[in-house]
Amino acid sequence: MATMLGLWLIVAPLQYEGVEPALTATTQFGGMCLAAFSAYTALVAIEGYLGESDAPEDDTGYA
Predict the structure, then answer these.
(1) Is 6 exposed, middle or buried (0-12, 13-18, 19+ CB in 10 A)?
(2) For helices 21-50 and 2-11, what crossing angle results, to 10°?
(3) Can you give the pTM of this predicted structure?
């Protein structure tokens, strides 16, 4: 959800003509940071859920 909000903050300022360039750039930068870090957090969570466990396998004798 945060990634989608970040993407919207990147795209939304481009729709308005009466906004100063500095405000547009600030909003887009905040959206870029939000989108990037929330997407990375989601990726880490998915990797943790689907990734390999660090426990040794039973057939190696290291149970």
Answers:
(1) buried
(2) 150
(3) 0.69
**Contact assessment for residue 34 and residue 2, using Cβ atoms and an 8 Å cutoff:** yes
Q: How far is CA 31 from CA 12, 47, 60, 63, in A?
A: 10, 24, 48, 47
Q: Phi-psi category of 55—alpha, beta or left, where left has phi over 0 and alpha has psi -120 to 50?
A: beta
Write the pLDDT tens digit of every residue in 15-31.
Answer: 888 889 999 999 999 99
Helices (H), 1-63: 2-11, 21-50
